[in-house]
Each structure stands twice: as structure tokens, then as C-alpha cells.
Specification:
This protein is of the alpha+beta class. The protein has one domain: Alpha-Beta Complex (tt1808, chain A), CATH 3.90.1570. Helices cover about 30% and strands about 25% of the residues.
């Protein structure tokens, strides 16, 4: 009886097409994290406690906003078919649902296109997050891109303006305010302190604004 021939395993640094990358990955069900950035395979390192902690805090932040914003959805470590030679797996992504006019879509079991907002926790991956990934997200049209670095504490929130990222500044109160998602407010001090009640309180302040109400109405009117 013929023995089936499996494709080679994914290896860090391999140069592959998107199709070959996915074909090999789908033959490795035990592998939960891998990326293809500009045609180069990037394999995972062990997930540190700081990375895990901040990904959880940021997921909570997203959840507070999504619960008050019909027409938006998010994902954690989801694979995105972003371009012909890039399949990133961002730490968090927030999208306007396609049926409500969002710019991303679904292809089979994967998300595809460019989410409106991406967050990367840059604990051990800062060089990639601020280099190859930043360039990929910028040219792919990700409207806002945050890198959150636990040590030293640094948040860089970028907004896409005429095809180029521009760094946004928090207000004098230390709160970042999204332009792509009205009402999505982030208290930096609360994030560093893991003060979840304060994170939720600031989001509630954001979603109580007229700008958020108008955004929700616009999403509802666009729904098809």
C-alpha cells in the first residue's frame, strides 16, 4: 500500500508562496501560530507572560467596545490573507463587518484583506512589528496600527493618512482616541496598571459620545 507523501514542514526563513505556506500549515494541525511576511516564513517563539498579560488586557478593551458597537467584530491571533505573499497573524484585529461596509472579508475559513485596526504586543517581536509588519500593514491599507511594548512601556498608535502612517498622540488626559472607530478610547495608565474597571469606564465614556452614536447609525444604514 502506498504511503502518502506529506509536504515538508514549515521552517523559519523559508521562502514560500501563500498557497504553499497554507498547504504546509494545514498539514500541521498541532501548529497554532505561523506567519508569512513578504514571502518569508516567520515561526513563533514561546509566548512570554508579559505578552500574554497585555494581550488579555487589550482583548478586554476590544470586548468592551464591541459590546456597544453593533457591526464591528474582533479577533485574537487570527490568520489574515492580507496579500499575495503575506499571511500575518496579528495579536488583535478589529474590523467593521463586511456587510456593514468594512474593507475586509472572509475567504473560506480565513479573514482576508486589511482589518481597519490591528494591535501587536511588541515584547520580543518589536523589530518585526515596527519593520516588516508595519510596512505590510501600511501598504495593505490597515487604517490604524498600534504597537504596545510592555518593557519599556510604549504605545505607538498610527493612523493611515494618504497611504502613509502618521503617529497619533494621546490627549492631555493620557487617553488615545481612535479615528477609525469613534468612541474607542484607551487610557494608557489603566492599561499599564491592568486596571480593567478603568479601561471599561473610559470605553463607556467614549461610546456615550455623539460621534459613536452617529457611527453606529452609519453602520446600521450600510448593512446589507
Amino acid at each position: 500500500m502506498a504511503v502518502p507523501i506529506l509536504p515538508p514542514l514549515l521552517l523559519d526563513g523559508d521562502r514560500l508562496t501563500r498557497e504553499e505556506f497554507l498547504r504546509r500549515w494545514e498539514q500541521m494541525p498541532e501548529l497554532k501560530f505561523a506567519e508569512l511576511i513578504d514571502g518569508i516564513v516567520c515561526m513563533p517563539s514561546p509566548v512570554s507572560k508579559p505578552h500574554s498579560d497585555f494581550q488579555l488586557r487589550l482583548s478586554y478593551w476590544f470586548g468592551c467596545y464591541m459590546s456597544a458597537t453593533p457591526g464591528c467584530s474582533g479577533g485574537v491571533s487570527g490568520t489574515v490573507l492580507m496579500s499575495e505573499n503575506s499571511v500575518p497573524q496579528p495579536d488583535l484585529a478589529l474590523v467593521i463587518n463586511p456587510e456593514c461596509g468594512g474593507q475586509s472579508r472572509e475567504e473560506g475559513q480565513y479573514a482576508a484583506g486589511a482589518p481597519e485596526l490591528i494591535v501587536e504586543v511588541s515584547h520580543t517581536t518589536s523589530a518585526r512589528d515596527k519593520g516588516a509588519k508595519l510596512r505590510l500593514y501600511e501598504r495593505s491599507g490597515v487604517r490604524e496600527y498600534l504597537t504596545v511594548q510592555p518593557k519599556p512601556q510604549e504605545i505607538i498608535w498610527r493612523e493611515l493618512v494618504e497611504g502613509v502612517y502618521r503617529e497619533m498622540a494621546p490627549g492631555n488626559d493620557g487617553i488615545f482616541r481612535s479615528q477609525a472607530f469613534p468612541g474607542l478610547w484607551l487610557d494608557t495608565a489603566a492599561l499599564w496598571a491592568a486596571d480593567l474597571p478603568r479601561i471599561a469606564e473610559v470605553v463607556q465614556q467614549g461610546v456615550a459620545t455623539p460621534e459613536h452614536a452617529e457611527f453606529v447609525q452609519r453602520l446600521a444604514a450600510s448593512k446589507r
